[in-house]
Amino acid sequence: MKKISLIIVCLMCTMLVFGQEKEAKKEKKKQALTTPVLFKDRIVLDFFSTVWMMGAGSEIKQKAINFGFNGAFMFDIPIKKTSPFSFGLGLGVTNHNLYSNVTWGIGENYTTIVTPVPEGISYRKNKITFTNINIPLEFRYRHSSGFKISAGFRIGLMADIHSKYFGAALDGSQDKDLIKNYKIPNRTKIPVEVTFKTGWKFVSVNASYMLTKMFETDKGPLINAVSFGITLCPY
Known about the structure:
The protein is mainly beta.
């Protein structure tokens, strides 16, 4: 009789322990579903290199690495309080650079033309810079583990375009020359980029594609940007 009672007590204790574990798992799952996901991607810093897409027969020979930067402050707007999905909307500045073998000038009918640097002339820096102020819009997903992914657009206003050359004088003399040219016409006024990011916590990889050309059609070289890089979101 004592053995039977002891067995019954052990079974009841085992059932009680399993029941408590099951209730604890249910409570943990419930908390996971009701706890809001923390979105921290408010300050976005993109560091990237641009691969420039050229028109057929272009004289422009680009360098392998063309460093660029995008910085933005964004508001995060969750679809629901506990949803992992949200929209990101903000204000940013994007800077694209093209390091190449050409100088930039004005041709007939006020078109933008390029002239290859003469052979035998060495230079330390030769680039054109495009800077635009833009409004980034992203559709975001962020898991509680820290994994995140987003896709969207940057729609902006081309605020500045200029070229910089530093090297031997283009006339063939032995002098050093520094040329900054801010009179480059026919830039596209409203650049539009498609963007994509994925990563974990505050580090991501990014990619973007420029839907618009850098210069107006038939008024300048046919070039647009495809970029790949790293994104940091410290806050």
